[in-house]
Amino acid sequence: MSARVGAYVHPVAGVVVVVLLAYTASLGLRARSERRLRARLLARHARLGPILLGLVVASWLGGLLSTWLARHDLELGASAHTRTGVALLVALGGSAVTARWLDRPIVRAVHPWCGAAAVLLAAAQVFFGLQITP
């Protein structure tokens, strides 16, 4: 694979991850209002959460790798896109940690805010990523 093509692998994978993130967040949000479907929506949300976290970690690492291998015009780890990616990982990590103790009221209150922060940070990722796309 040429370096030119390799530079686009991370952005395309990023789009897939952002779409999956939005879908997973929508499941949790819909579960709040659709009482009849709540159990099914939350089960799917809980199944996708760990997969999504793994994909975000892989995408972040892929971004670093593609920058190192194919984007010599960028300084490794210096862009707002990279820093926002770290914040996204922290937000999703917070979501994963709080998902373990959802039976506690304070944790149940914090969990959706971690997810909302992740969705907003993913939108920022798209914005900052478009600025550095070759």
Please explain how this structure is put together:
The protein has one domain (3-132). It has 4 helices and no strands. The mean pLDDT is 91. By secondary structure, it is an all-alpha fold.
**Largest sheet properties:** none
Query: Rg to the nearest angstrom?
Result: 16 Å
Structural class: mainly alpha
What is the helix tally? Answer: 4
In the predicted model, the low-confidence regions spanning at least 5 consecutive residues are none
What proportion strand? under 5%
Instruction: Count the domains.
Output: 1
Give the overall shape. Answer: elongated
Count the E strands. Answer: 0
Order of helices and strands: HHHH
Instruction: Estimate percent helicity.
Output: over 70%
Distance between the termini: 16 Å
Q: Mean pLDDT score, rounded? A: 91
Features:
134 residues, single chain, elongated, mainly alpha
Protein topology:
Blueprint lengths: L2 H31 L4 H33 L9 H20 L5 H28 L2
Overview in brief:
By secondary structure, the chain is mostly helical. The chain is built from four helices and no strands. The radius of gyration is 16 Å and the shape is elongated.
